[in-house]
TrEMBL record:
Keyword ATP-binding on entry: no
Pfam families listed in its UniProt record: Acyl-CoA_dh_1 (PF00441), Acyl-CoA_dh_M (PF02770), Acyl-CoA_dh_N (PF02771)
Gene source species: Prauserella marina
GO BP annotation list: fatty acid beta-oxidation using acyl-CoA dehydrogenase; fatty-acyl-CoA biosynthetic process
Cofactor(s) annotated in UniProt: FAD
Keywords of the record: FAD, Flavoprotein, Oxidoreductase, Transit peptide
PROSITE patterns: ACYL_COA_DH_1
UniProt-recorded name of the protein: glutaryl-CoA dehydrogenase (ETF)
Enzyme Commission code(s) on record: 1.3.8.6
Amino acid sequence: MASAGATSSEHDLLDLDDELSVEARTTRDAVCAYATTELGPRIADWYERGTLPRDVAKELGALGLFGMQLNGYGCPGLSADAYGVTCRELEAVDSGLRSLVSVQGCLAMFAIHRYGSEDQRRAWLPAMATGEALGCFGLTEPEAGSDPGSMRTFARRDGADWVLSGTKTWINNGAIADVAVIWARADDGILGFLVPTDAPGFTAREITRKLSLRASNTATIVLDDVRVPSPALLPGARGLKCVLSCLNEARFGIVWGVVGAARSCYTSALDYVGSREQFGRPLASYQLSQRKLADMAIAVTHAGMTALRLTALKQAGRLTPVRISLGKLANARSAIEVARIARGMLGANGVTLDYPVMRHMANLEAVLTVEGTEEVHTLTIGHAVTGLSAFR
């Protein structure tokens, strides 16, 4: 049986990891060791049962993976490539693990760090960095997925308080979070709020019967006249631009993460055809097998190159939304194609949880959609190259 996602330099055909900083390589080795030995052996069971134990968050927090790219308040302020390889090594095991780190650090914590008050940062970020407290990001609604500007959740003033009403859905960590970053429409535009999940009128119902991202918690949140005091307002969070800045942080993690999922599928197929014999020869010796392996190796390598280039742009302050759209769309497409090829190479064994391939393939179907659908990223790129918007 192939491993759940161990890394190996022999599969890095262009030695791309040579471009990583020393900090990123140290982080890579620590995360890979933990993910392979502690998470890999348990992930198939969690996926099958449709759960991710809450204790995993504390383990990830103890490693310093929550908000690792942020500075202060218990966050280590590591480099962009260190965060990237963390996403890669976690998603090599399962997309749900990368999603947990992404939602916590790049959506909830980033929103508080970037747009919150000093009191809000001190109240939440240290506990979130350790995994003692979990956050979620309440943006998507039943009737407003790719069009957040059409959100119906409303915030109205009532004396010194705000009262929030509406529904959010497909919210990762929603049913296990301690605090929710809720985006709502008000008379003066879209605002962000910090809402404790034990507030009266706040309910979260876990979404079950999922066939993708099963090793994660996803929920529908209902805000039934939830009353919060004025200090719950994120003072710097006004307008869709703030929402999209958070999403772009998470998309950057996906650009790296799917490289890990693709690598896991590729190495699983390589191991399998190298040991499986048909017609008296290893499957790996046949031309069609080698063509497929070569195609997968190229796809994984190109996705890794894209992740590195976007990282360099990010560290130089030149990572624009359209560049993130290009990377997320291209790498997610490449990863799911690698997963599909690998699944076929494993034959019937490829659809079992004894191998990670089908699990990755199902997860990547959701990853294609989250943080911007294929269509949205395609039209973002189309707008950039033509100068003409096709959204309206």
